[in-house]
Sequence to fold (1327 residues):
Amino acid sequence: MPDTKTKIDFELNTEPVEVAFAPHKTLLEVLREDLGLTGTKHGCELGECGTCTVLLDGTPVLSCLVLGLACAGHHVKTVEGMAEHGTLHPLQEAFAELGAAQCGYCTPAFLLAAEALLATSASPSREAIKQALAGNLCRCTGYIKIYEAVELAAARMRGEDAAPRKESLYGVG
Amino acid sequence: MLRLPSFAYRQPRTLAEAFAMKADAGPDASYVAGGTDLYPNMKRRQQEPRTVISLMGIQELEGGKDGRVEGGAVLGSCVTLSALSNIPTIQHSYSAVATAAALVSTPLLRNMGTLGGNLCLDTRCNYYDQTYEWRKAIDFCMKKDGHICWVAPSSPRCWAVTSSDLAPVMVALGAEYLLAGPAGERVVPAARFYKNDGINYLTKQPDEVLVDVRLPATGDWDAVYHKLRRRGSFDFPVLGVAAWVKWERGAGSRERVAEARVVLGGVASWPQEVPEAGAALRGTVLSADAIAAAAEAAYRPAKPMDNTDFDLSWRKQMTRVYVTRALEELGRRRSTTR
Amino acid sequence: MASGKKRTAAFRVIGKALRKVDATAKVTGVTRFADDLFLPRMLYAKLLRSPHPHARIVSIDVAKARALPGVKAVLTGKDLPIPFGILPVSQDEHALALDTVRFVGDPVAGVAATSEEIATQALDLIHVTYEPLRAFPDAVDAVEHPDPVIHDYADAGNIHKLIDLEFGDVDAGFREADLVREDLFFFEGNTHLPMEQHAAVADWSPDPSGKLTLWSSTQTPHYVHRALAKVLELPPARIRVVATPNGGGFGGKSDPFSHEIVAAKLAMVTGRPIKITLTREEVFYCHRGRHPTLMWVKTGVKNDGAITGMHFKSLLDGGGYGSYGVASTYYTGALQTVTYPVPRYKFQGARAFTNKPPCGPKRGHGTPQPRFALEVHLDKLAEQLGLDPAELRLKHLVPPHSLTANWLRVGTMGLGRCIEKVVGGSEWKRRHKQLPYGQGIGLACSSYITGAGLPIYWNAMPHSGVQLKCDRGGGVTVFCGSTEIGQGSDSILAMIVAEVLGLDPGHIAVVTGDTDLTPVDLGSYSSRVTLMTGNAAIQAAERARDLIAPHAARKLEVPEERLTFADGRVFDVERPEHGLGFAEAVVLAEAALGTVGTVGSYTPPRSPGRYRGAGVGPSPAYSYSACVALVDVDPATGIVRVPKIWIAHDVGRVINAASVMGQIEGSVYMGLGEALMEEMAYRGNRNVVHKIPSLLEYKSPTTLEMCDVVTYVVEDPDPNGPFGAKECGQGPLLPVPPAVANAVYDAVGVRIDEVPITPEKVFKALRRKEKGEDPRFGPTRFPEIPWPEPTRVPTPSEGGDGTAVGPKPATASAKR
Fold:
């Protein structure tokens, strides 16, 4: 029977989970509906906006097009797994500081895509950031505060004592 | 939320297991690799397999990641597009392949989508790539659930367009595909893998699996890929130009084109080779005149239809410009690499 | 108004770039959007939508759907027969079509089932018999064919609304002119495309007399509250509407929607919570976005560029329903006069019904279209006069604190400073007309309202209300009906109250957008929230200060006038060390008075215009923007890229600097999308289906299309704004499309008088130029429209009093 629930184990935000669901459910649906983690959002469910981005074994993927069953034995990271011990991840901190989250709906996706970028590139250029985030749509920010937040977080993750530029927050003259 | 219909999911570990599962499930079964083409189609009810067989856990399909190129590279069909575009030897020796792979959709999708998936990508049409409810409002089309091709209502055939970035490159390079099925293996030239029909666009049998892609040995040839689309990411090509030239060895500083192929994506149901364009280049030094003649030759048969982004007459006009630019790049590459 | 009247010292909170009050929740994924709500026993609802653009419903058979296991209820039009609509003059929508469907996607039936999958399956089991009617794919077709009517209440045939306003003798103005020019423009429709698809959850508590709660991603909970009461025939007191944080709005969540009403009714019928979440395609059908607008403008100017008269005509393609359309139509003619003096002005506007999803308010509501026309038109006039377009504008600015010909009262006016900023920053003088072929630079300006002067339904009550509760622990809670849609309205409330009471904004709790808990605010639209809730919050906070101060003064033995509230303390300004903690002061006040709470509210000043139609355009304050765009045009393809934009915006006064920057950059982004690629496209010859209802094919710029932005924030505090603040969330979008169009002309010498400026259009215009034809792409004709007798209103300079003169216009029925 196709609709019979199947149980799988995987690692979610560094913790083992066991969950049973119908085979046709996507990772997006399993996270939101079967595991109660609604931090992962959706904007089209067709892979056309990037809003449902999560990290699968460290790689950003579209959770709306990943079958839940395909995640058995793998590691999934969602926005809920970013802050540790009550402390925001430097990217979360920088997004909050710069107003890179306006409505906040695409934010979890951008944070995870940016986290994957910074995991492989400690000092990405502006162009590299644009390329890495080119699969995520945002309608509020015009992306600029997002780039600046990624740059700020990257600097802090390199151990620099960085602060937002004055023009970022107040404009020019 | 747009959801998948219910189906049974199978995860074979070997090709033999996959064939057995396919035979077992019958015509209502579909193979899936990255899922970035099939799952959206299933959510829109364009495809409704009752069994989905994943190819992602099969070792035989994962070759090529090491990027070995002696006597030509072999790329496993399940290598992801991200991985493919980042293999250093592919970037170096088959840059058109790496370029085309890196131009597919978005970084996120490329982390999931595979080489095989892109080469077998369903043809696209904005009368077809719509939800069930939308298609119902136009009484469907012949590619799924209906009888007419809305792009050309008097046409007996479907005009959905090839939208793969890698397929035209493979045809231009003269790559070969290894197919495996219950009846055994066969190797087909990339050009013969495709058919100019929006519905039956592949010569692959439904139970066959694309195992790997064999790229020709490196040598005195070069290829480039140029893509036209509205945005720098997400969008499928409305025109793809793969251009390949083989330089004539010999005396003299002015090397000549021994052979050339120009293959267009996004203007027909298959990657459309334009032999006249190649002919126009043969024996030339890729002069501006020769390029113009080839571009003109490519422009003539390009037949974009009103079923993708952009106005079709403009897309046809762009064939000239994009073929010219691709050939000009080949010319520049020769002068800088030699 | 109480705009910080007692303040003399420097601001401690206002003007800073503070982290928004909801920032942490948003970066951790904790914010609960409507679709994130899951209630026990919840059912899922889906809507069956019309596959016909225009048809009569002959019959609906729901028996098979009802019989499907898991289906709990099926509703059709007759279950919700009472019409609704956002404007009192266009109550023309039904939650489910009663007898006529008016666009592909018009809701016809609603199903509740135990899963979304079953609800979806059930839709296919509903059998509807339609009798197709002739469909109208565009406004010109609808104007030229009055039959069959899409609605029977239109002003004429399929023309929903006709407006004809005349302020002074325009023909005399043209006679005085040294140059008169006419141009035609078209602005294609586009949509908001919030990343969050609309969603709602309804819950019905049956006991004792029933209470409905609706959580919805709405920008206007108050209007949804009213619509639910009307359609469901429930007393408002038995309905609670909670606006969940909107995952983007941009105007697209400002109407009461079918799905909200159907979810509510299904909850009542089944006795179980109902969730409905629209698919992306359905969001395109909700639409209410930018009206496709055809425009004709004729302007007379003196040799120095001074305008002597202007005549502007617009034809809006409204789609299948009224929505905000009457207001949108007026807006296409309202704000032409607030940037450069237009001494005599005539406006004729028409809105047609067509068989497409309804248009409504999108960021800039009705004004980006005429602004595009006007700013490109001015660029052409400047060229003909041999004047620099920046100089022409700078020389002719509407004076601050003045009245326009159409009786709009302008307050502060920082456009001149905005122009100087972008002209200087972009090195305009060195670049304009001097860049190599293919590169160009263009300038445009704009203005936008900071809230509308009138509410959507006539009433004499405040537009915004705030309640304040001071806690004996020193915290303060602000209650306000405003809706957080990402623009930062919750944070504005916290910052303003913190400023007045001298508190840390982190000590202010904010409760918003809940009709049970918060006083009415009309909603997040028309850029009204900062000004209106801000003024209400200042009043409430000042009253709290006045309530607390005497008790602190008594304790400190200092005259009350010498007390100040700052840094979490109440102290003597002459001896700052002599004071109390704010919490201590509250304790004293609470001991003496009981619970310490105050209220504040805001009503905009009355507009001087008294003619019919004067309700649209007046605002407490107008923001101003100037923009310079740099473009690269590929002459071989017509592809336009915009590497950089300079934008200056007169925001009056910055409240939260980071939010202001975000709003300006976001506006530039949306303006760029409209300028280059976004459009609602339909197949008129294929059942008027939406051609591309998806996030893939509706082209929203990605990181790779977005330009660099240099932002200049200009502050010219307006006496009507809280601490002088004006809007910044919509205005900066307006100048972007015309700046890009003017830059394209500078780059390759072709005029694209139509938005979006796509490669095809540029390519065609370049072809025409090569052939020696008119180097232009744009509309060529404005259809004949049966304009009514104009409403003639003498201008202020003619000694008018804001009322119309002469015979009443022919169509001035009791409709508005």
Chain A has a mean pLDDT of 97. The radius of gyration of chain A is 17 Å. The longest helix of chain A spans residues 107-120. The longest strand of chain A covers residues 6-12.
